[in-house]
Fold this sequence. Notes:
The structure is a homodimer. Helices cover 32% and strands 21% of the residues of chain A. Chain A has helices spanning 21-24, 46-64, 85-91, 107-120, 135-142, 213-232, 248-261, 273-276, 291-307, 325-329; strands at 3-5, 11-19, 34-35, 74-77, 98-100, 126-133, 158-159, 162-169, 193-198, 241-244, 270-272, 288-289, 313-321, 336-344. In chain A, the strands form three sheets. In chain A, strands 1-9-14-13-10-11 form a six-stranded mixed β-sheet, sandwiched between helices. A six-stranded mixed β-sheet of chain A has the order 3-2-8-6-4-5, with helices on both faces. In chain A, strands 7-12 form a two-stranded parallel sheet. In chain A, α2 crosses α3 and α6 crosses α7. By secondary structure, chain A is of the alpha/beta class. The first copy, chain A, has ten helices and 14 strands. Chain A is globular. Chains A and B meet through α3, β5, α4 and α10 of A and α3, β5, α4 and α10 of B.
Amino acid sequence: MQTIRFKNMPKIVATGTIAGPKECAGVVGKYVDKTLSDDTFGESTYEKAECKMLSYAISQTIENAGKRETDVDLLVSGDLLNQIISASFAARDFETPFLGVYSACSTMTESMAVAAALVNAGYYKNVVAATGSHFASAERQYRYPLELGNTRPPQSQWTVTGAGGAFITSANEENRVKNTQKNAEKDAENAPAITFATFGRVVDFGITDVNNMGAAMAPAAAHTILTHLRETGRSVSDYDLILTGDLGALGSRILKDLTWEKGVDIQPNHVDCGEIVYNVLEDEFQGGSGAGCSAVVFNAYIYQKLQKREINRVLFAATGALLSTVSSAQGESIPCICHAISIENV
Amino acid sequence: MQTIRFKNMPKIVATGTIAGPKECAGVVGKYVDKTLSDDTFGESTYEKAECKMLSYAISQTIENAGKRETDVDLLVSGDLLNQIISASFAARDFETPFLGVYSACSTMTESMAVAAALVNAGYYKNVVAATGSHFASAERQYRYPLELGNTRPPQSQWTVTGAGGAFITSANEENRVKNTQKNAEKDAENAPAITFATFGRVVDFGITDVNNMGAAMAPAAAHTILTHLRETGRSVSDYDLILTGDLGALGSRILKDLTWEKGVDIQPNHVDCGEIVYNVLEDEFQGGSGAGCSAVVFNAYIYQKLQKREINRVLFAATGALLSTVSSAQGESIPCICHAISIENV
Lengths: 346, 346
């Protein structure tokens, strides 16, 4: 069994989010805690800006949960930069133990799954899971510095500048949490719970085009979603939403084909964060990507829909492409992974 | 509380290790499963050799536990290369879910702690934790390619070429495991157990010299070890061994000073994997380092001492320096972390 069940239903009592101007012109604009007026966030480098965004998202998550930094037992985080420096340097700002994780753009669901597992087992009461990404630092590290002015192929995606965090807690009698987030209408007891986690396998379909992440990641998403449904005995219609992370338009189409081939039609309930994060403009091509994509879309937009009970059951399946510039230069294909969690109003 | 206790005592029923010729000339030589005759391991690049070593260590761990790949519920792994490609590409070789973690050279204890937490909670029966490193790939990525022939300063350490894994299991009646490892004398029920994990905080003492990792990491080790002792109510003499990962000679001396200042004398029971891994030669200066250092020393040498009950209680506290070449180039100091686990014959 790849899927584990959380009997004690750890709650997501609050989230905290921040995003760049381009992102906030889209669907998440009115849901994030902070919109950046420019993507340097007052820092001298894009890497420092990325780290500061992540640090902000963590702080805001704690504040929105009505808690203080000292109430947090553990921070679980990771990011796209080499040696996950955004997460490590952000963790330096907090007096809390830190567990570094990495699964590229599925880091949001990986960190939430690990956090939920540790809270559900009773090891810790309050755990914050967070991640983020930055368009300019990702371009520089994975592709070309912006100053080069390279053109982008039509199958490419646009790394989201943004960060998001989730406050995951046991939310029982001894650990009262009152959400102070704007638009929040519910107490912690009524907050959405994480009920299942399905850790994914590495799936490699032999894609070598580093500009075509959606196609590379779709088979991993299909594998984890189908495994989750089989192991939990659930069907697509049991979910109001099957939310993938950053497959983009092309990857989403491939995912629908792959699952349909196996007799599962996810089409009616499927939404991809990357596909909806931007207003449809020319230069993002297939949509958004990056660890910050699902971090912002879930923790801002989707979380508030769960809180208002406009939707009640989400399968959140973020995907990650586990390549590096070195592996690609050495002729390797792109291994991918998808970690999924089930989030429900119970 | 940073420390969590594992009531159900997950067992380390087997380990698997591989190391390079230079490493095997030292203390671990007669304990590893495989000694490489040259450090390319038959591959065309050092990165591919590193990945193959890690894959070998995982396979050997499973074989030594008398199990098959399909018996493994989860692989927890990470490494030093950008985007942890050694772990991700090694995971591609196995039909098992994969949880990527990163904390630089403390990845061995982080992955073992996470594995123990998931097994202890009953989510999974059999989890493999593994990591490794390679001298040449680390030099190329973090410092200079070997071909440049740069000289090394006297405070520098030598990244270990090697990998190690641990098979962590619930080892109860329904899940019988028989260790088939050479020199193994005990059944799974008598195997060493992981009893506590102390996840560390990020500690930054402002060190900026990337050739002086020992000094940068020692404060993190002191913080986690002192926290562990305080929270468990244990003293240094309760442990037969306090085993740090890769502080090296200089870092170990700083650790002893820092803990002594706080009224705790770890000197009598302290050993550092980096300090003992090599025969004393000139070019390693302060000793070994890298995620593979503690992975090989613990899983080969120390584990077999635990199995033979020559020692019975070890506090294993590996340390990691959470820098990247980008953070250093941007003038940042080196944030560090130390994750500790207690391993006991119970």
